[in-house]
Design brief:
- This protein has 79 residues and is mainly α.
- Helices cover 49% and strands 0% of the residues.
- The radius of gyration is 17 Å and the shape is extended.
- The two termini are 32 Å apart.
- 8% of the residues are buried.
């Protein structure tokens, strides 16, 4: 699993996207930073939540959950 991007990087990308010039698309900004446009959309949405302008789960709240679900498969049995 790849490491998550640093929060400073996410904050910078979101700031650039929010302050973009007319005619500059999210896709162009995402490409410039080497990320997928959907990721940038998610970061912008999460930033709105963190700032209180949108309801939902903040980065801090989300950090309390494991990055994957634990399998219910018990694994190999002892002979």
């Amino acid at each position: 699993m790849p490491k998550p991007y640093p929060s400073e990087f996410r904050d910078d990308v979101v700031r650039v996207a929010r302050n973009r010039e007319p005619g500059v698309t999210i896709e162009q900004i995402a490409k410039d930073f080497g990320i997928h446009p959907m990721m940038l959309q998610k970061w912008m949405s999460r930033a709105d939540i963190d700032e209180g302008s949108k309801t939902g789960q903040t980065w801090t709240e989300a950090a309390g959950f494991p990055p994957y679900q634990v399998s219910r498969w018990p694994g190999p049995r002892a002979p």
